[in-house]
Amino acid sequence: MSTSYYDENAELFFADTAYVDLSDGRRRFVEALPPGGRVLDAGCGSGRDALAFRDLGFDVTAFDGSAAMVAKASAHTGLPVLHLDFAEVAWRETFDGIWANASLLHVPRCDLCEVMRRLRRALVPGGVWELSFKLGSGERQAHGRLFTDLDEPGARALIAEVGGLETLAITLSYDVRPGRESEGWTNLLVRRLG
Which segments in the chain show pLDDT lower than 70? Predict the structure, then answer.
């Protein structure tokens, strides 16, 4: 997965995302977590959500594949954000929840199952995982980035292919950033089995 777009556009991406209110989107995830639980913000971008989870009393670990975004997120959150690619995730049964908001959508579809299995292993049995993809189907290139888009049938097929996960909810939402209100998102909440 290339991070060059984020390395080259860190200032713009940070300004565009760091202060977007996603509290509604975080609510169902937070409600499924134990108080003070361990949360992994996977592909944390600006650090917006890692900061929100920390402020809610969770024990937060955050990482991003872009060195420039790691620096921005560390400065924004005060957390020691890790510079890590999804393919390097090696935690085992460590986290009560994983938050992967608009991050896995940049993983090529051919690699997505293996990446998701790595993340699934990082969850404790019964742990929950929120992930989101742009609404659509298939892969596409836009502004120098690869996107793997999913609709509800594609999301269900992916979860079945990954295995070891129970789907708790699939919802559709629309982007809350100004000027992007027509962009749809497929949001999944899943739980690790066994």
Answer: 1-19
How far apart CA 48 and CA 50 sit, in angstroms, is 6
CATH of 4-192, one of 3.20.20.30, 3.40.50.150, 3.40.30.120, 1.10.3720.10: 3.40.50.150
The pLDDT of residue 125: 98
User: Would the pTM of this model clear 0.85, i.e. be above it?
Assistant: yes
- Residue 87, classed as helix, strand or coil, is helix
Residue written as tokens 């559709």?
Answer: 172
Which pLDDT score is estimated for 178? Answer: 74
- Taken in order 28, 31, 33, 36, the sign of the CA dihedral is positive
Of 5, 8, 12, nearest to 177 by C-alpha is 12
Side-chain half-sphere CA neighbours of 72 within 13 A:
25
